[in-house]
Specification:
By secondary structure, the protein is of the alpha+beta class. The chain contains two helices and six strands. Strand 3 (about 85-90) and strand 4 form a beta hairpin. The radius of gyration is 29 Å and the shape is elongated. The mean pLDDT is about 85. This is Macroglobulin domain-containing protein.
């Protein structure tokens, strides 16, 4: 019993300094550096789309303007070469897709013409613009 107690005491005393992970204190500089590294390695963009009206009728044209900004800093971004805008119908299926290229000021302009006569497969209702 004395040998077991001595062994357990030895293990407790000398295993205190052992650990599987390095526990270092995080400083503000370390956190900022890691965040900057994350932003540089995996840049993200947000797209903002503006349309000329809030409601449309058959035969109208949806005029739109889109611009990209950096997701964290909200400054203009020029990383993407194209923007895809999709028109989604009430049944959640794709009705129309356009591909826009930026102009010299890094703005994306385009339009989606709506058909004058609605075919049977196209319903009236709430449609969504989806940026891809």
């Amino acid at each position: 019993m004395k040998k077991v107690f001595s062994f357990l005491l030895f293990v407790v005393i000398y295993s205190h300094g052992l650990s599987a992970q390095d526990y270092t204190k995080l400083t503000v500089d370390t956190v900022v550096k890691r965040m900057v590294d994350q932003l540089l390695l995996y840049p993200q963009e947000k797209i903002h789309v503006q349309v000329d009206r809030s409601a449309y009728l058959p035969g109208d044209t949806v005029w739109l303007k889109a611009y990209l900004v950096h997701a964290a800093f909200h400054i203009p971004s020029n990383q993407s070469r194209y923007v895809y805008i999709e028109l989604i119908n009430p049944l959640d299926s794709l009705t129309n897709r356009i591909k826009l290229r930026p102009d010299k000021e890094n703005m994306f302009y385009g339009y989606i013409p709506l058909p004058m006569e609605l075919p049977d497969e196209i319903r009236s209702g709430i449609y969504f613009l989806h940026d891809g």
